[in-house]
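Entry 0007
Protein: 7,8-dihydroneopterin aldolase
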Amino acid sequence: MDHVFIEGLEIEALIGIYDWERRIRQTLVFDLEMAFDNRVPAASDAIEDTLNYKAISKRLVEYVSQSDFGLVETLAERVAAIVLDEFGVRSVKLKLSKPGAVRGARAVGVMIERSAP
Ligand SMILES: Nc1nc2c(c(=O)[nH]1)N=C([C@H](O)[C@@H](O)CO)CN2
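Output (structure tokens):
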């Protein structure tokens, strides 16, 4: 199966369980790998036939920057649902990183894999 990917998409959001985290915005980093048959756009050379990574990135920036969750797990689940439901993707692997959240670690976060029902 082919994939379309988005790597290192940085978005600021209100996220975290601690009081101090409710008062600031933190940068989150998203990596997505989305299953898609790229032979169709390859044959037509038409953007309309692609899984358009720019359109998906724009939608995720819009959603995540307005979001307000405690856990990265919750946000990751919502973002995966948007990709599956709104863009007709069959399966998505998503890594959500929270850089600098834990002293000594470059980043912490979650990785999930979800498929359309
Ligand atoms: N599995 C998780 N562990 C933790 C989370 C989380 O969202 N998922 N969040 C925190 C705090 O918000 C942390 O990021 C602040 O440094 C701690 N553990």
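Curator remark: The pocket of LV4SOB2L is lined by residues 16-18, 21, 71-73, 98, 101-102 (CB under 6 Å). DSSP finds three helices and five strands in the chain.
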